Amino acid sequence: MLAHARDGWRGIMKLDSFKLAAVSALLLSPCLGGCAVAVIGGMAAAGGAGYEAAQERGINGTYSDMNLTATINNTLNNQYGNISTTVYAGKVLLTGSSPTPQAKAQAEQIARRTPGVNTVFDEIRVGPNEEPGDLAKDTWITAQARSDLVFDGDIRSGNYTIETDRGSVYLMGSARSQAELDRATSHARYIPGVQRVVSYVDIRYGEPNGTPPGATAATPGSPPLASNSGAAAVRPVNPNAPIQVQKLN
After folding, report:
1. Strand, helix or coil at 32?
2. Rg of the chain over CA atoms, in angstroms?
3. How far apart are CA 185 and CA 162, in angstroms?
4. Do 86 and 119 form a contact (C-beta atoms < 8 A)?
5. Which secondary structure element, helix H or strand E, spans residue 170, and what is its range?
6. Are strands 82-88 and 91-98 parallel, antiparallel or unpaired?
7. CA dist 102 to 30, 96, 119, 159, 205, Å?
8. Which string of b and e fits 73-94 if b means at least 16 CB within 10 Å?
9. Are residues 96 and 78 part of one domain?
10. Which of 114, 129, 144 is the last residue of a domain?
11. Rounded to whole angstroms, how far apart are CA atoms 170 and 164?
């Protein structure tokens, strides 16, 4: 039950800002339960295709990742712990907890053997399940990180997937330049409650407005990044930020 509730709320937090706002409004309105579910489902059917089409991986890539997520989750079937699966462009991130090192290793092997999986990032912790209060904090951090990316006009937020587990923020996806990735990770570094930020983001310089290889891009310690879109300037990227970024791919 806890696993299904966790995955359900984290799925909602991965929606774009419009859907997220609508979900919040529905939850606060007199029309709750089945009515809210019906409206949310209609929104997903009506607006989902346009949102996925705006992503670098495209509609086909998005649904391929969704199928991979469902396949891995169905195979794991909560037998190896309270594990959450996040997929972007065939890359799989496993988070959550397993009761033993053996269960953790088995879960990773199952994900690796799934057809269509390119890479597996195993961030499963060995130990007890996450407490409900910590899960709520993680859900809030993910929502805040998503909001920050959506409202930064220099970040193509649809190209990023965000997962938070016990205060660790994991970013997956693709950036158009190192400068854009610096902006994205800088947002996450300053969110209250974040313990670390881990980047599994690829840089695709061929994307529109990307910084080509050899061009100057922002580096740690540099001044605030300039905004070309009129969006509010992001906080400076500097080595004294409270949380450092780990790049593990």
Report:
1. coil
2. 18
3. 11
4. no
5. strand 168-175
6. antiparallel
7. 47, 15, 20, 34, 40
8. eeebeeebbbbbbbbbbebbbb
9. yes
10. 129
11. 6
CATH number at residue 90: 3.30.1340
The two tokens of residue 54 are 């705006």
* Secondary structure letter of residue 125 according to DSSP: E
Query: With a cut of 70, which residues of the chain have pLDDT below it?
Result: 1-58, 206-244, 247-249
Residue owning tokens 């959450």: 84
- The span from the CA of 23 to the CA of 224, in Å, is 34
Do 119 and 171 belong together in one domain? no
pLDDT for the residue numbered 135: 95
Domain extent for 91: 58-129
Please, what is the Cα angle at 29 between 27 and 35, to 5 degrees?
70
Task: Give the type of residue at 216.
Answer: T
Residue 154 near residue 231, CB atoms below 8 Å: yes
N-terminal to C-terminal alpha carbon distance within the chain: 32
* Entry pTM: 0.68
Give the three-state DSSP class for 10. Answer: helix
- Edge to edge, the sheet with strand 160-165 lists 160-165, 168-175, 196-203, 245-247
3-state secondary structure of 95: strand
The total of structural domains in the chain comes to 3
Residue after which a domain boundary falls, among 9, 25, 53: 53
For the chain, the residue count is 249
Where residue 234 sits, what CATH number does that domain have? Answer: 3.30.300
Single-letter amino acid code for the residue at 50:
G
One domain, residues 144 and 125: no
